[in-house]
Amino acid sequence: LAIGVAVAGGGHHAASGYPDPFGEDEAYRDVIAEQFSSVTHENQLKWEFLRPTREEFRFEGADAVIDFAEANGQQVRGHTLLWHSQNPRWLTSGTFTDDELRALLQEHIATVVGRYQGRIVHWDVANEIFDDKGVLRTEENPFLARFGTAIVADALRWAHEADPDAVLYLNDFNVESIGAKSDAYLALATELLAVGAPLHGFGVQGHLSTQYPFPSDLETNLRRFTDLGLEVAITELDVRVPVDAAGRAEPDDVEKQTDYYGRAVAACVAVERCTSLTLWGVTDRYSWVPGWSPGEGAATVLDEDLAVKPAFTAVADAL
Ligand code: XIL
């Protein structure tokens, strides 16, 4: 079981006024190097970063994380190729024919997966393609709008051609439990496998909140996917808690958070084909949560000073 972490950079960091955490924070880099066997780019492999213009690919940010991982003997999880969010404006507001749009995605996948062939173990090929009701996000996702799920099958094929050894995933949030959304994935995965699409895994992000009950059917749900012959992973685990203006959490919530972390890890550990578990940030210093969910925070296993929280111990104990 690979234990991974999202490496900060881009996204909300770019807007925060912090220096680039990955580039400049030595203590942070040391934690990543020492505590994890896998890394994921938090933002640096998204279209927004790789594709400033239609003609250009900009790989420095992504390369730096991969070089770091290799220097530290870590594997890399690639995130992501086909998503509705963090796309450049030239893509979302451009006018393209169907053929042009399809060719753009094909070129993107061939170029990016091809560049890192043999160096990225897992790819989140398609991210967040269903809404919480299990309806395909055709409004928000320019590729799904034109081609529906057929483009997902194509994306898998293109990724597989570019790196036949890469393990190819669908990935989403709010799919920890059995429900409309995870059912939609189960149906789509069944269909894709039936037509021979190279789908190998299902990723459950795991953005949890102590304000909701723990998804106690997580393990059962993961097994629905391994029963199809897929592997599974928890890909973006964090557990946010209500915080005051100073970012402090109540002891009860800290206790609940600790419990949630331990149970999420235990669910993955219990499922033989749950092959990796990634934390969406390791320290509150850089977590995306406070910026994204006002009134919540303290969602990671290390505090702002990189000190261990009870959640860290819960994760370690559950492994
Ligand atoms: C988040 C990043 O953590 C932020 O830095 C960025 O501003 C927005 O995206 N699901 C995903 C991730 O698949 O890519 C998102 O990452 C969190 C939710």
TrEMBL record:
Q: What class of enzyme is it?
A: hydrolase
Q: Which UniProt keywords apply?
A: Carbohydrate metabolism, Glycosidase, Hydrolase, Polysaccharide degradation, Signal, Xylan degradation
- Matches recorded under SMART domains: Glyco_10 (SM00633)
Transmembrane region(s) = none
Domain GH10: residue ranges? 15-318
State one Pfam family annotation.
Glyco_hydro_10
Q: Which InterPro entries match?
A: GH, GH10, GH10_AS, GH10_dom
Q: Which reaction does it catalyse?
A: Endohydrolysis of (1->4)-beta-D-xylosidic linkages in xylans
What EC number(s) has UniProt assigned to this enzyme?
3.2.1.8
- Record-annotated active site: E236
* Similarity comment: family membership: Belongs to the glycosyl hydrolase 10 (cellulase F) family.
The name of this protein is Beta-xylanase
